[in-house]
Amino acid sequence: MNIVNFTPITALSGGLLIGLSVALFFIFNGRMIGISGIASNFLISKDNRIENFLFLLGLILGPLIYNQITGREINISISSSLTLLIIGGILVGFGTKLSSGCTSGHGISGISRFSLRSIIATVTFMIVGILTVLITGIL
Amino acid sequence: MNKIVSLLCGIVFGIGLVISEMINPEKVLGFLNIFKDWDPSLVFVMIGALLVSTPVFHLFKNKKKPLFSSNFLISSNKEVDKKLIIGSVFFGAGWGLIGLCPGPAITSLALLNINSALFVTAMFTGFYIGLKVN
User: How many Å lie between the alpha carbon of B88 and the closest alpha carbon of chain A?
Assistant: First the structure.
């Protein structure tokens, strides 16, 4: 194993902001953020639909505001084929709906609550993610 | 007021994903690539987030109610069941395949990237399938 592209300072800073968002949402609105939950509930449930929509809108405004303030370009690279993107998207949507949480809902909010369910979910999706990268790297 | 909080929290979360670079699938795949060229950054994202969210949750969880809402809505589900494990396996496979999870995927729509739009459409289809299976 080699350590590469390690950016602890920006990772920690970004993480603190994510934690701040989770904390404020809890103190003011009384809910623990889970983005798969917010997104899927926006799609299928009338409860809190406006709040859910505004949160998702905020997510999308985030990069635009960052870009306005700092003037920095945001570059991302998605190298997967169209077929893989569709399969991956369905797996992520289906899996997070079935297990009621994703990286934010289980990985941050659930672990903050010391929820055993969320700890087990997080360990599981991390191990499977690592194995998937290992296998696709070999193929 | 809780609507304004929702929007602001979304913005702060989105900026957090940009600064930590978790919005970039390449960065996430680097984190999952522990056997070759490993980028441990995501560990620090989680530490940073938990450093704030954990104490705040435990300080406020026993309050009567949140500031701008009538009651707390916290999952009471404690069951470690098949759905939790199978769902997490499917999610991990999709995450490892592309390097996108729900938050970064939706946030990256801001960049008008056709690939992330396709992924998000598929993800919402997946939510719907999950709902039907449930």
Answer: 5
